[in-house]
Amino acid sequence: MVMERNQQPPVQRFRAPGNLPALSSSLLCLTCKQRPSIMLLLPCSHLAVCDQCARTTELCPRCTRPVMCIIRTVIL
C-alpha cells in the first residue's frame, strides 16, 4: 500500500480477545459494582470507585486506607 505524505493509515478493526469481559469487570467500582472505576484515590493510588460512590468514600475499598484526595481519571 502506497501512502501520500500526511495521509493517515486506514483504521484496522479487530476482534476483542476472549478474556475482555474479565478485564472489564475488574474495572468496575468496588463499592457498587455497576459503574466503571474512574476515580483515583490518594494517597494509596487505587483506581477503585465510580464518580457517584466517590462522594461518600472515606476509606479506600481495596486497602482501607483513609482517602485524602480523589482525582477523576479519563481512560482511553
UniProtKB/TrEMBL annotation:
<keyword id="KW-0479">Metal-binding</keyword>
<dbReference type="Pfam" id="PF13920">
    <property type="entry name" value="zf-C3HC4_3"/>
</dbReference>
<protein>
    <recommendedName>
        <fullName>RING-type domain-containing protein</fullName>
    </recommendedName>
</protein>
<dbReference type="InterPro" id="IPR013083">
    <property type="entry name" value="Znf_RING/FYVE/PHD"/>
</dbReference>
<feature type="domain" description="RING-type">
    <location>
        <begin position="29"/>
        <end position="64"/>
    </location>
</feature>
<keyword id="KW-0862">Zinc</keyword>
<dbReference type="GO" id="GO:0008270">
    <property type="term" value="F:zinc ion binding"/>
</dbReference>
<dbReference type="InterPro" id="IPR001841">
    <property type="entry name" value="Znf_RING"/>
</dbReference>
<keyword id="KW-0863">Zinc-finger</keyword>
